[in-house]
Amino acid sequence: QIIEQNADPEQMLLSYLRKRLHLTGTKYGCGGGGCGACTVMISTYEPASKKIRHYSANACLLPICSLYGAAVTTVEGIGSTKTRVHPVQERLAKCHGSQCGFCTPGIVMSIYTLLRNHPEPTSEQMMEALAGNLCRCTGYRPILDACKTFCKESVCCERKTNGKCCLDHKDDLFDKEAKVSTRLFSTDEFQPLDPTQELIFPPELMRMAENQPKRTLFFHGERMTWISPVSLDELLDLKAAYPKAPLVVGNTTVGPEMKFKGVFHPIVIAPARIPDLNVVKCTDDGLTLGAACSLSLMKDILTNAISEFPEEKTKVFRAVLQQLRTLGGEQIRNVASLGGNIISKKSTSDLNPILAASNSILNLASRGRKRQIPLSGIFADGLGNNAITPEEILVSVHIPHSRKGEYISAFRQAPRRENALPITNAGMRVLFEEGTDIIKDLSIFYGGAVSTTICTKQTCWTLIRRHWNEQMLDEACRLILKEIALPCSAGGEEVDYKKTLVVSFFYRFFLEVLQSLRTTDPCHYPGIPMEYRSILQDFKTKMPQGIQIYQAKPSQSPQDPVGRPIMHQSGIKHATGEAVYIDDLPSVDGELFLAVVTSSRAHAKIVSIDTSEALKGPGVFDVITAHDVPATNEFYYSDDPEIIFARNEVICVGQVVCAVVADSDVHVKQAAAKVKIEYEPLEPVILTIEEAIKHNSFFEPKRTLEHGDVDQAFETVDNIIEGEIRIGGQEHFYMETQSVLAIPKGEDKEMDVYVSTQHPAIIQ
């Protein structure tokens, strides 16, 4: 009812919780579903099966309109210091799993959701549930220590020589001679987890799902209309009427584009409630999955299929499942859809290369027409040409069984294993002539290399009828590198790295197939040398283990905390979401919001700053530049001054040029995007050490490492060793969202400044 009366299609659940319902436990994080700080539990009821489904999701990506009929549980809902602290909240705090506490509510909700589905989870399930939650300051060891207390199997460090478990704190904890201890918390203090005492699914939502006939939902906002049809025919009519309207299921593609790239859609169609798009059907030649099926559901279905069918038929399923395990985090997979992953045609899709290589079929529909096309056809020319018309809907995807003599593999390399977009990925399939190693059919698809998934069709055609041997391998690597033209716009090192990955993936595929051929016929196929076999081993994520040793004195007073593992004073409030951060403070009358406009150039002269369009925006009060600073336009962080607003030139990308002030965070961000800055390049452009030496450009003061008479030493030594090492730039990892609240006191020019810093002395 709340949603029907108030829903704005542009509003995400996170802002709805905080601004409309004034719940502050769920935190603002990265804003794009990548950090898990805003994790909540969503519960839905299916009348046909009478089953309740619980899953974790990122509130910053969930449109409020998509939650019609669902129950949302936030960190406040499971426990608080005013009522009862939940065992998850208690254990995370007492096991020292919180430092700044910003990510803690999201971690609590990820663990809580897992326990609602699996009261005694395995360590693998726990690791998987937390893969979508980033912690930037605490470190994961204490967080996982709390998780281990819920796991049904022992997670012993196996370091004890006497066969005792390290988790048995009754013995061997205290070394009387060394006076050290390793005990960080006492499990005796923990409340037991009682699944019978958890929140029930709201009966009114259950009655609504069972008694109310399904109807099309319309939500109208200031700028956007959200339409949720209930039948395929209705969806096809809507798509014919609004061909440019995107279909949104999980909002993991459209959401970030609207938030970060300024893309706007006046009409959004949500097809998640249509049965045809949620079909799961097992056929004689494979599996058909509806386009609206979530990636988590797809993962479960493939896992079941692998256990039911012979291994020969499930090679495609295994390869797809391998990609699904590391695709995003649990929160993303729970809402992202199979169809959305395919239709977006992004080069970073981990599924498109393997589904295309395995000859998966797309079932399409438009008004008065249905057709099937192979997914590989969309990427056949390497440009991702749109084989799907704007009026067409992807209804389902057919994933075929593998055949005898067919081998399929999928690969990906990313900055980190889970919850990270791939640098490069691949899907590969080979079919041999029966009883031989002669290539009958070959498919190789790569993602991440260019703007979309690409097919190396020339390479594949050339290698047909060739034997699977090292001569074929050499030619394949040469042909692949020739066919895949990586753009030179990327850094030289990145291009070289991607080329290495492209070849390495095929080399691993070559060895995997060779190993399989040898297994089937050891006499005819050579074995892989021992030194190469490690390439065939998958890296498995293990539960981290650690031991902390600290001094302990039996005579120490219980009131003396020094040297003892004392729980963080705010730990419980972090875990319940009651700790107050700047964004949680109530609004002040007349409060304004400021957003900085930063340089897009690294070394340039500022020709002009055009603020006219920004000042026309709703709620905009002013644009502040260097000319508005009343005193010197600088502040001191160390000995050298730091510029507040760039005045005449910029020295780096991201330097603050000006700032916009408006009446809301939405209005101020919209206005800041409209400020136009004109630049003029400055010479010389110094990008290398050699160029810096040429232009006599050195950091002052010059720093040297010298001891004694260096010149004399070099004249008398027997050997001089010299060389170079080159280190490229790094991609930096973002921290938490930073914010400042400044409130004028009204007298003596004093201000109360609330600032999210870890260094208050410098701020002062």
From TrEMBL:
This is Aldehyde oxidase. It comes from Phalacrocorax carbo (Great cormorant). GO terms for molecular function: 2 iron, 2 sulfur cluster binding; FAD binding; iron ion binding; oxidoreductase activity. The keyword Iron applies. Keywords: 2Fe-2S, FAD, Flavoprotein, Iron, Iron-sulfur, Metal-binding, Molybdenum, Oxidoreductase. Residues 1-78 form the 2Fe-2S ferredoxin-type domain. Its cofactor is Mo-molybdopterin; FAD; [2Fe-2S] cluster. The keyword Metal-binding applies. It comes from the Eukaryota. InterPro entries: 2Fe-2S-bd, 2Fe-2S-bd_dom_sf, 2Fe-2S_ferredoxin-like_sf, 2Fe-2S_ferredoxin-type, 2Fe2S_fd_BS, Ald_Oxase/Xan_DH_a/b, Ald_Oxase/Xan_DH_a/b_sf, Ald_Oxase/xanthine_DH-like. Belongs to the xanthine dehydrogenase family. PROSITE patterns: 2FE2S_FER_1 (PS00197), 2FE2S_FER_2 (PS51085), FAD_PCMH (PS51387).
